Amino acid sequence: MADLIHKTAAELAAVVASGEASAVEVAQAHLNRIGAVDGAVHAFLHVDTDGALAAAAAVDAKRAAGDKLGPLAGVPLGLKDVMCMKDIPTTCGSKILEGWRPPYDATVTARLKAAGIVILGKTNMDEFAMGSSTEHSAYGPTHNPWDLERIPGGSGGGSSACLAAFEAPLSIGTDTGGSIRQPAAVTATVGVKPTYGAVSRYGLIALASSLDQAGPCARTVLDAAMLHQVIAGYDPHDSTSLTDPVADMVSAAGTRDLTGMKIGVVKELGGEGYQSGVRQRFTEALEILSGLGAEIIEVSCPHFDYALAAYYLILPSECSSNLAKFDGMRYGVRAGDDGESSVEQVMARTRAAGFGEEVTRRIILGTYALSAGYYDAYYGSAQKIRTLIQRDFDDAFARVDVLVSPTAPTTAFKLGEKLDDPLAMYLNDIATIPANLAGTPGMSLPIGLAPEDNLPVGIQIMAPARKDERMYAVGGALEAALLARWGAPILTQARAL
């Protein structure tokens, strides 16, 4: 079946379950696609051909034996290179972990395997998830399948690009300040940051432990919901894991009528600094939501204006602490060990050789913010702003069911355009960061192409903590209305491949 790569995850699962195509055939079709286009896209850092085909064969054997298959059994997936996978290279896009093979699976990885999902390999990312463009990978940038001279978002650009390039129908990303949602926005895919603690962080190599969250990436809201339900749920290995039962997000994704739903438009997440085409498509999406029965209400979250500044003190501080363990003493690369140097000298040389510019920048900033005499002035003050942002969310959700905004202020910019301007790069996450600071869930889905450059625009839907299913209800209804208007998925308009 030549068209296997263009089917949704839900369709592929049905194809495998019915025997119309084997899981091995599905996996091979996607491996062939990777071989054909990934030289241009560079979405993958490591392709596990043998492992993927073996996992697919196991699904086929299970089906042949009459055993019940999981809802996504036999569906291929790209795994962000920040998630541990036993005996498979896991580098976090960094030279300091080059060649490292974990001795265990992350909980997310283990749940994917148990569900019969076929992991094709590890996807490219900004080093240790620090970046908004995947240009900070030590192994070279990923390219946006819409325009190979543009960024695919970050830090999870590989996880979004592999979807848009039809190399995989599903992927896993992680979102610390927007690293699932912003790549989804610029590649016309769907990306979800679950409620903090709803998906286990065990085996996710930490950047900022109070912000990091793994989540599903897909080409449709339904596919994202199906993947979300596979990876969600309590994990005793993660002290921050929520014990709540997993909500029925698949049913929520089938919502088509939003009558009675109150949708809040965040006043602070729009206007100046937002590309005109982004604002235009967002306004059109609000009109569609209104036509589906929702009530559109403007809300103000005044402390969101300080979210970016607070985030870039909290994240580097936690990063400075978390990355201290990468010192060349236990695993990964060791540099400058000439047999005569002290341990401290080898550690310093290893970190200098292994960490890239952006990682080094943030470690220095975080170490400074945590230092004696500055902790209260910087880190402590940022945590107070975080509390105020959480209160803004609480106040807003007392009035509305969900909040919406553009996911990113602009469409995908050109590779290299902002690489030498860190502050300009950081502004790409201005709309997504508040949800990470508050621990609330957020989703991005495509709402069209900006008229000035014909590049994808995304809408962000945010729900209260532990109410992830509300995002899927709104996202599913909006996606269906847009699809009816377009007549075909917007990814069919991607031009570069």
TL;DR?
With 497 residues, the chain is of the alpha/beta class. It is built from 16 helices and eleven strands. An eleven-stranded mixed beta sheet has the order 1-3-2-4-6-5-10-11-9-7-8, with helices on both faces.
Number of domains: 1
Task: Quote the CATH topology.
Answer: Amidase signature (AS) enzymes
Strand order of the largest sheet: 1-3-2-4-6-5-10-11-9-7-8
SSE order, one letter for each helix or strand:
HHEHEHEHEHEEHHEHEHHHHEHHEEH
Q: CATH superfamily, called what?
A: Amidase signature (AS) domain
CATH class: Alpha Beta
Under the CATH scheme, the architecture is Alpha-Beta Complex
Q: How many E strands?
A: 11
Strand pairing plus helix content: what structural class? alpha/beta
Given as residue ranges, the uncertain stretches (5+ residues, pLDDT < 50) are none
Rounded to the nearest angstrom, the distance between the terminal CA atoms is 20 Å
What is the 3D shape? Answer: globular
Computed Rg:
21 Å
Strand content: 5-15%
Largest sheet: 11 strands, mixed
